[in-house]
Amino acid sequence: MPADHTHASSGCFDTAAQDAVYRAIFTRRDVRSHFLPDPLDDEVLARLLMAAHHAPSVGFMQPWNFIVIRDLQRRQKVRDLFLAARQQELPHIAEERQALYRKLKLEGICESPLNLVVTCDRSRSQNSPLGRWHNPEMDLYSTVCAVQNFWLAARAEGVGVGWVSIIDREALKQVLAIPEHVVPVAYLCVGRVSEFALRPDLERHGWGNRLPLAELVMSEIFGGDGESGLKETVTGLCAGRTAA
Ligand SMILES: Cc1cc2nc3c(=O)[nH]c(=O)nc-3n(C[C@H](O)[C@H](O)[C@H](O)COP(=O)(O)O)c2cc1C
């Protein structure tokens, strides 16, 4: 085996490490409240950025940049964009849900000690769109992978992250001087928190529930029946998690 490979069997994590990975996945939350004012240590932020930077990316394109925003005035400008966007979104929400929508806390832009924008530079493939010729949007998906790495690593470090998507993209680009060919993929509120909710906020407030996983599994073709054994196992796992 070449020196720069790990044998698959020794690559298997021990049980404690596996548990830690799943713990990060299952206890990660989108956080908009309970931010503490404490500044986030650069050492910690650096580790989270390293995690993001090790995400998979199409053609190893690594299309991301990370804009760290600490300045409160700039964040207030972004919060104004959020407030305007929320007003614009409201009429498109089903009428019977509008009162609940208005009550939901959907951002922590100014309460969190810092904001982070993860961008996608769509020109970074140097005219060699490996993996993107048929599906050019793969660079955007790669950037989302970086966001998820950041989010999971943050959870493991006890750092809260909340994604704010209710913002007009072009207006945000202007506020942050983002060039034309760069897309702001994720606007994140980041910081230490006093607590992580056990369940998603939107679930706790009656907006939605986690869908039954077994009903989302298909066999061979879209909508294909089958995989009853797998579905049963999945249902058992989900029941175990709900009971826990
Ligand atoms: C792409 C994306 C955009 C999101 N935008 C918002 C947002 O604008 N405001 C908000 O409060 N939550 C936002 N969220 C968080 C979701 O509401 C949250 O992930 C979902 O309710 C499940 O909760 P959990 O992340 O705590 O498990 C976003 C999540 C994703 C993945």
Automatic annotation (TrEMBL):
Record's keyword annotation contains Endoplasmic reticulum: no
CDD domains: BluB
GO MF, one annotated term: 5,6-dimethylbenzimidazole synthase activity
The enzyme's E.C. designation: 1.13.11.79
Superkingdom per UniProt: Bacteria
InterPro entries in UniProt: BluB, Nitroreductase, Nitroreductase-like, Nitroreductase/BluB
Protein keywords: Flavoprotein, FMN, Oxidoreductase
Keyword match Oxidoreductase: yes
Start and end residues of each Nitroreductase domain: 26-192
NCBIfam families attached to this UniProt entry: BluB
PANTHER family: IODOTYROSINE DEIODINASE 1 (PTHR23026:SF90), NADPH NITROREDUCTASE (PTHR23026)
UniProt-recorded name of the protein: 5,6-dimethylbenzimidazole synthase
